[in-house]
Amino acid sequence: MNVMVTDIADVLIFEPKIFGDARGFFMETWNHDRYAGAGLNVNFVQDNISSSGRGVLRGLHYQHPHGQGKLVQVLQGEVFDVAVDIRVGSPTFGKSVGCLLSRENHRQFYVPAGFAHGFCVLSETALFFYKCTDFYNPQTEGGILWSDPDLAIDWPVKSPVLSSKDQGYPCLKDIPKEMLPVYGGMA
Fold it and tell me: Are 171 and 178 contacting, i.e. CB atoms less than 8 angstroms apart?
């Protein structure tokens, strides 16, 4: 397995080993010991799958408290995936990392707890898989406007299809700091 370090500590890209032949391919998507040895020693408690069409943008979502680390992967299609550091006091607060995930590249993207997460679909459809380190908790969910100018995310879609909830989220600077995770603290 190849592990790619990004510009933000703990945000990692994994390229699992693929075993392929004329019949198709096989890959191991999670093995606790192997991933822990590669720097990701977490306990996943919930798996999710979403299906979306071209131009759909989901995000930027987070939970606080009860932050969720997410190992995400595309099973079908292609997406542009983004992690934004929203930990108050972090040296990379407000910075983001983007990654292209597809069925073809088999990459996995780890978004740590304390980060906002979002993705947009570039293919006709996309089947998106999440492994989460905490359970979904609607009372602690929050979001940041996908087009927040201070974040300067270079989304590859300019007029995405959004939920009404995602359209109404505030910019990061307008969220009270006590409503955000703290760097080095409980995320």
Answer: no
Q: Residue 2 is inside which H or E element, if any?
A: strand 2-5
HSE-CB of 147 using CA atoms within 13 angstroms: 11
Residue with tokens 């009372």: 139
Contact predicate 121/81, CB 8 Å: no
Q: Is residue 69 part of a domain?
A: yes
Q: 88: domain CATH number?
A: 2.60.120.10
CA–CA–CA angle 12, 9, 36 (5° rounding): 50
Q: In whole angstroms, what is the distance from residue 165 CA to residue 54 CA?
A: 19
In a domain, 167, yes or no: yes
Q: What is the set of active-site residues?
A: 61, 130
| Identity of the amino acid at 74 | V
CB 90 within 8 Å of CB 116: no
pLDDT tens digits, residue range 13-58?
Answer: 999 999 999 999 999 999 999 999 999 999 999 999 999 999 999 9
Q: Determine contact, residues 100/147, Cβ cutoff 8 Å.
A: no
Structurally, the chain folds into a number of domains equal to 1
Q: Could you count the other beta carbons within 10 Å of the beta carbon of residue 58?
A: 20
pLDDT for residue 187: 39
Q: Which domain holds residue 96?
A: 2-17+27-179
CA distance 82 to 84: 7
Residue 129 included in any domain: yes
Q: Looking at the domain assignment, is residue 163 inside a domain?
A: yes
